[in-house]
């Protein structure tokens, strides 16, 4: 044996490092950092969502309007002809003498919008910055809400993140069935806007003949029953309270064994609720429980209800009841979301992809290993050892970073197997050349590495430039390809250049001029 | 084992003109194909929907087409086998943005009369994302070329850099021409393959150029073609071996890697072949055509050396306190 040199020591350490940190990924053990499989390999749902920000702006205008209305009516100023546009809303002040007074009240109470006046018409408008703020708030809130909902749904490690300025990335691995996928999508999209509304008992009997416009005149709206769209309810447009005052919601079974949802209101909500039920009890007026603009039930109020508890029944299945409870607990979506792109992969296809790409990797690897050994003899075997170390290093580095292995990523590893031996091919050719020129073995090895270096270096740098740009500009699974190629090239500098050099130095005393065919595959 | 045993230089440059003409024809016809036929842009860039379903028996293509044609949204859908006769790919240009309207469920419903099947994959890209990806992909390619050009100019003489970029355009053009000709759906993975070819093709060219640079400093002749022949012959073994191992693994990927990677690996295979060819036969003669002169280069080199030596001398004198 030759002397133990720093190159071989570094190589052995790197090899050990590679093996040790690959173990958690290879054995899929519970503990330790490991590679996550991309959605294309384990199956799952990937969605890029947009937020309908114009709806968020509209609802924010509405809430500004209701504040305005409340404040003005407190001062006996009556408004009419309310008009809600895209980024502004306007209304008329009936008594023109009150306009200046109204303007003063509004300027005092409304801080997050511009107020302008033209004769007796007051316009409340949002500027670019305020619109941006509302949009951002809606997106952030949607990310938060969807994340909460998916976390409670019970599937492993869903990802919900803001992407770019106005997109939401949702990734749910391990979705097994079509039904499960639909449930998840329904859960994500559910506005979960709970409202408790008073039925307009004075006019409720006429609801079937009434038009929307007529209802509006009375300050009412018409809502449909959740199960039967022909059953209609006339309710007061301004709700008694809404889901923002909810603190908890649970799916339980009622005394008949039917799944229902019980909810609990916060202190303020409980007070409002008690107040309303006290007033409604003498006439046995009805209370509509409205979720996402559908009436689930409208029971008569028989007595004052304190404690702020209520329930929603509607012939749910237990899954539906569960999902609604989750959505209620996680809060309502300020603005609806829509799909920009969707990729969903069934678990069986993911498994097929793993099997196929793994087969390609193993076959390609074995072919290259055998070929190198046949062509270069021991020099090829040494290159093969470097190649094995390279694979372990790729795996370990990906594990440590918790990187995601995608199908293109697998392709990148396969490609690395072919390209990583390039450095050794260049070096071995140089050594052979020098041996043929009659140089001594140590000299041939030393100069072989020296001569080969600049070519290997330049070639690797250019590949790195291409793969780095692919990483920064690529998206989704393609990033995985860039990652494995990049790690593969970097690792190959360590294994194929430094590592093999060290091994030669270690074995140098054994390499004899008489058996060059065994060591380098040539006869001189 | 040895494939090529170096005895004397092979005369590659004697035939350079013919290879040049051959390459020019290939590149021009590739451009023509791209211009006339155009790319078959996949959903990543064009937007649209791809649905992959697998039947428990042979898929009834005709029935599937019939059922789909009844639905407005899927009227123009194309239906083809995918990998096996049990699996089918349905492609449409449309996409839907409603979260609760699941395409898998929709297809299950439309095709329920055609037999038992499983929805294995749904890929849907809306028009907005498609154009964003297109822009990003173009940026990545342009920056990659600029970055590499800058690096090569820094490492080599400018004619080397320009020659390798021309060789690169040659390789990528032919690969793109093949993609258009074979109607391979142009998706993100194909872009990744093109960028890989970009790196690979340069890789090969650089190895040869590196050797030319070395020979320029060593050899006594001033004839560029002699030097090029010498360099290419000496690197021939490496060029073919690396191409062979890379080709081998990508070919295995093409055969066993599954249907989804077929377009990707096929593009790479074409790129490897073209890249190898161009680095042997095309890249080096471009140097000559760009007016590279060995004598001039050597003189420059000598002058540079002289300057450095003078500087060295001055420094030595300075340190000795002579000046």
Give the terminus-to-terminus CA distance of chain B.
61 Å
CATH-defined fold name of the largest domain in chain A: Multidrug efflux transporter AcrB transmembrane fold
- Helix and strand content put the structural class of chain A at alpha+beta
* Average pLDDT, all residues of chain B: 88
Compact description:
The complex is a heterodimer of chains A (524) and B (323). Chain A is built from 15 helices and 19 strands. With 524 residues, chain A is an alpha+beta fold.
Helix/strand layout:
The complex is a heterodimer of chains A (524) and B (323).
Chain A: H1 6-27, E1 36-37, H2 39-42, E2 44-51, H3 53-74, E3 79-84, E4 88-93, H4 99-109, E5 114-118, E6 121-125, H5 128-153, E7 159-163, E8 167-173, H6 178-189, E9 194-198, H7 212-217, E10 220-225, E11 232-236, E12 241-242, E13 246-253, E14 259-265, H8 267-280, E15 287-291, E16 294-297, E17 309-312, H9 318-330, E18 337-345, H10 347-376, H11 378-400, E19 404-405, H12 407-436, H13 441-473, H14 477-507, H15 516-520
Parallel strand pairs in A: 1-19, 10-16
Antiparallel strand pairs in A: 2-8, 2-18, 3-4, 4-6, 5-6, 7-8, 9-12, 9-15, 10-11, 13-14, 14-17, 15-16
Chain B: H1 16-36, H2 43-46, E1 48-55, H3 61-69, E2 78-82, E3 84-92, H4 103-110, E4 117-125, H5 127-155, H6 158-181, H7 188-218, H8 224-256, H9 262-289, H10 294-320
Antiparallel strand pairs in B: 1-3, 1-4, 2-3
């Amino acid at each position: 044996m030759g002397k133990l040199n720093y190159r071989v020591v570094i190589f052995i350490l790197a090899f050990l490092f590679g093996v040790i940190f690959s173990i958690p990924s290879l054995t899929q053990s519970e503990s330790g950092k490991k590679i996550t499989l991309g959605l294309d390999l384990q199956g799952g749902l990937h969605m890029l969502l947009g937020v309908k920000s114009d709806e968020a702006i509209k609802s924010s205008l509405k809430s500004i309007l209701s504040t305005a209305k409340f404040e003005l009516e407190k001062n006996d100023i009556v408004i009419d002809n309310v008009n809600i546009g895209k980024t502004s809303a306007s209304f008329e002040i009936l008594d023109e003498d009150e306009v200046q007074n109204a303007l003063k009240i509004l300027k005092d109470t409304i801080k997050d919008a511009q107020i302008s006046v033209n004769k007796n018409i007051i316009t409340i408008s949002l500027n670019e910055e305020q619109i941006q703020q509302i949009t951002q708030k809606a997106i952030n809130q949607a990310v938060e809400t969807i994340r909460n909902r998916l976390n409670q749904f019970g599937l492993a490690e869903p990802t919900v993140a803001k992407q770019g300025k106005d997109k939401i990335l949702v990734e749910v691995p391990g979705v097994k069935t079509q039904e499960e996928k639909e449930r998840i999508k329904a859960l994500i999209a559910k506005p979960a806007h709970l409202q408790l509304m008073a039925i307009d008992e004075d006019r409720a009997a006429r609801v079937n003949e009434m038009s929307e416009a007529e209802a509006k005149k009375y300050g009412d709206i018409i809502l449909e029953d959740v199960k039967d769209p022909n059953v209609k309810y006339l309710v007061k447009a301004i709700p008694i309270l809404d889901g923002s005052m909810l603190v908890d919601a649970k799916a339980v079974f009622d005394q008949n064994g039917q799944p229902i949802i019980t909810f609990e209101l916060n202190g303020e909500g409980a007070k409002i609720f008690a107040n309303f039920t006290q007033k409604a009890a003498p006439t046995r007026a009805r209370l509509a429980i409205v979720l996402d603009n559908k009436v689930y039930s409208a029971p008569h109020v028989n007595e004052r209800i304190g404690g702020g508890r209520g329930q929603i029944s509607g012939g749910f299945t237990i899954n539906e009841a569960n999902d609604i409870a989750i959505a209620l607990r996680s809060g309502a979506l300020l603005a609806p979301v829509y799909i920009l792109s969707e990729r969903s992969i069934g678990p069986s296809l993911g498994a097929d992809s793993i099997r196929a790409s793994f087969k390609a990797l193993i076959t390609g690897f074995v072919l290259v290993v055998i070929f190198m050994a046949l062509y270069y003899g021991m020099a090829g075997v040494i290159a093969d050892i470097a190649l094995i170390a390279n694979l372990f290093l790729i795996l370990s580095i990906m594990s440590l970073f918790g990187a995601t292995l995608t199908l293109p990523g697998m392709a990148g590893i396969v490609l690395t197997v072919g390209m990583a031996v390039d450095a050794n091919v260049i070096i071995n050719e140089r050594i052979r050349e020098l041996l043929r020129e009659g140089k001594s073995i140590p000299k041939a090895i030393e100069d072989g590495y020296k001569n080969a270096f600049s070519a290997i270096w330049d070639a690797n740098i250019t590949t790195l430039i291409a793969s780095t740009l692919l990483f920064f500009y690529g998206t989704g699974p393609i990033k995985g390809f860039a990652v494995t190629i990049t790690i593969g090239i970097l690792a190959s500098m360590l294994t194929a250049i430094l590592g093999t050099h060290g091994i030669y130095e270690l074995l140098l005393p054994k390499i004899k001029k008489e058996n060059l065919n065994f060591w380098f595959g040539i006869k001189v | 084992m040895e494939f090529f045993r170096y005895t004397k230089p092979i005369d590659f440059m004697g035939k350079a003109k013919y290879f040049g003409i051959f390459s020019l024809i290939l590149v021009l016809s590739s451009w023509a194909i791209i211009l006339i036929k155009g790319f078959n842009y996949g959903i990543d860039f064009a937007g649209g929907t791809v649905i992959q379903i697998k039947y428990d028996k042979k898929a009834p293509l005709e029935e599937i087409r019939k059922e789909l044609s009844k639905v407005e949204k899927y009227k123009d859908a194309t239906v083809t086998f995918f990998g096996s006769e049990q699996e089918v790919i349905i492609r449409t240009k449309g996409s839907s943005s409603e979260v609760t309207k699941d395409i898998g469920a929709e297809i299950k419903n439309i095709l329920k009369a055609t037999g038992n099947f499983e929805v294995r994959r749904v890929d849907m890209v809306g028009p907005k994302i498609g154009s964003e990806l297109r822009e990003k992909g173009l940026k990545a390619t342009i920056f990659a070329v600029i970055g590499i050009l800058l690096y090569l100019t820094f490492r080599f003489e400018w004619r080397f850099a320009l020659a390798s970029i021309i060789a690169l355009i040659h390789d990528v053009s032919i690969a793109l021409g093949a993609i258009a000709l074979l109607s391979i759906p142009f998706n993100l993975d194909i872009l990744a393959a093109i960028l890989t070819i970009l790196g690979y093709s340069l890789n090969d060219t650089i190895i040869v150029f590196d050797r030319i640079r070395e020979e320029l400093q060593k050899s006594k002749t001033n004839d560029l073609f002699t030097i090029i022949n010498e360099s290419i012959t000496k690197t021939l073994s490496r060029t073919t071996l690396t191409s062979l191992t890379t080709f081998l693994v990508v070919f295995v990927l093409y055969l066993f890697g599954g249907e989804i990677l077929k377009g990707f690996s096929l593009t790479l295979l074409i790129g490897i072949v073209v890249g190898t060819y161009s680095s042997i036969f095309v890249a080096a003669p471009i140097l000559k055509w760009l007016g590279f002169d060995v004598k001039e280069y050597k003189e420059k080199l000598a002058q540079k050396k002289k300057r450095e030596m003078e500087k060295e001398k001055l420094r030595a004198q300075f340190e000795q306190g002579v000046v």
